[in-house]
Write a structure and sequence with these properties.
With 200 residues, the chain is α+β, with helices and mostly antiparallel strands. The protein contains three helices and ten strands, in the order αβββββαββββαβ. Helix 1 crosses helix 3.
Length: 200
């Protein structure tokens, strides 16, 4: 009986490993096939790459979205464009604030605003552009009685860090049903972010 149980567990582990390997291979394939364009912001001294075919728009206001990149519509029935944005906050208005304090305030505001209406998928330290940062992934819970509409609720991927006198927040927003579709490109964008003046 123990041998049969061991064989069963081993089979499950092999299947799980195979699925994980397949998913990772698919991730590499999607991200490697994407062709990226370069973006540089002289005002806030940061650069990143974004997929060709995505729509890019800029803003110069603080605190506001400095740049937004939106996915193309998939078909005539598509009413929401998944998008990536970079928001820059002037820290000179909050002298002495640390990354930990900024993170605590950001998390408290998000959780306080939506309370039980959200779920948290990931909340941990990370890096952005080589700087210490924080990653926060969360999604909206569908209203009671509308659980079948869960795929249309929104999900967010945030990662933020400090550079000089500014806090930079990278945000990916998408519908739950489409969120993972663009994750390979989004993660490639995160890895591409660099801070500092462009070389002449």
């Amino acid at each position: 009986m123990k041998e049969r149980s061991s064989d069963y567990i081993l089979t499950i582990l092999i299947v799980f490993f195979a699925l994980a390997l397949f998913s990772f291979a698919g991730y590499l394939l999607l991200s490697s096939k994407t062709v990226y364009s370069d973006y540089y912001n002289d005002t806030f001294e940061f650069s990143m790459k974004y997929p060709q075919g995505w729509t890019m728009s800029e803003s110069r206001e603080i605190p506001a979205i400095v740049v937004m990149v939106a996915t193309p519509l998939r078909d005539a029935l598509d009413t929401f464009q998944e998008n990536v944005s970079v928001t820059v906050t002037d820290l000179k208005r909050k002298p002495g604030v640390t990354l930990d304090q900024f993170t605590k305030i950001t998390l408290e505001q998000t959780m306080g605003m939506f309370k039980d209406g959200i779920y948290v998928e990931s909340s941990r330290m990370d890096r952005l552009g080589g700087k210490p940062g924080y990653r926060f992934i969360w999604g909206m819970r569908p209203p009671k009685g509308m659980e079948t509409e869960a795929g249309s609720t929104l999900k967010y991927f945030h990662i933020w860090a400090f550079y000089k006198d500014f806090a930079y927040m990278f945000t990916y927003a998408g519908q739950e049903s489409q969120f993972d579709l663009y994750l390979p490109q989004v993660k490639a964008m995160v890895r591409s972010i660099k801070f500092g003046k462009r070389n002449p």
